[in-house]
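Following up on my earlier message about 0GY. Here are the inputs again, as you asked, copied directly from the submission form:
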Amino acid sequence: MNKQHDNMPVDAPTWHPSPRKPTFIPPAGAVDAHCHVFGPASEFPYAPERKYTPTDASKSTLFALRKHLGFSRSVIVQASCHGKDNRAMVDALISDNGNSRGVAVVGSDISDKELNDLHIAGVRGIRFNFLKRLVDPAPKPIYTRLAQRIAELGWHVVVYFEEADREELAPFLASLPVTVVIDHMGRPDIAKGIDSVEFKTFSDMLENDKFWVKVGCPERLTLAGEPYDDVAPFARALVSRFPDRVLWGSDWPHPNMKSHLPDDGLLVERIPVIANNRTLQHKLLVDNPNRLYWGN
Ligand code: 0GY
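Thanks, got it. Here's what our run produced:
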């Protein structure tokens, strides 16, 4: 047990207490493909090795928000504060009558039976997190072996990295024997613009159809603040170039957000700005996530 971490103060709430009802109405069957549940710590304690302690963010609050925003389904992604203990996420999946799928974080010691139990609960992917402020990443052969094992279940990998680490990670990610979903557009540097070498190289990498990309999260990437006009061109470019391999997520409850409390209703209202016709919106919110998460 790490004493310093066990004495870690609990972060202030990171989500908006009363998000607006969005004026954009998502198509029927829309999926929020990136959100989290935290705790409650009394039932599902946070991991000793965590780098932050969030306010508890319950499944009931998540599901009520989903309804308020006009969505039908959720993909609940395991966050670093719960480490490899997926119980809070799995508990949310099981209580949601098949309307939630999960992305777990697992170690090399996980048994085939445990993987199978996660599948039965609704998990369809595992997350490799390379953000050093959030985790201490494992050696790459461990991730490769895990990817080989989940390939047999028809799962995919969700990967979270900083733009600065993309070049080093790209060959490794391309070598994985499964679909690879990239969180938060690979965290581009918004100041550099969509014509930067970095964003162009990132976008070109996605020509390999093993890669999918999440185009949400403007609140985390913005330099200008709400309504995130500076981030929209990045998402719009990816949606129009890769319409069949993009996903959108609210990122509720927005862990580690310090600059402002994002209004989830505003985040939904920004969807038609990045996917500007009904066909693109249907692919982004319904077809793509349902294919990836409810196809098997
Ligand atoms: C996110 C982002 C963050 C946190 C985590 O696993 C995590 O703790 O994903 C972050 O701080 O950028 O999308 O959930």
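One observation from looking it over: Residues 31-293 form a domain with the TIM Barrel fold (CATH 3.20.20.140). Hope that helps, and feel free to reply on this thread.
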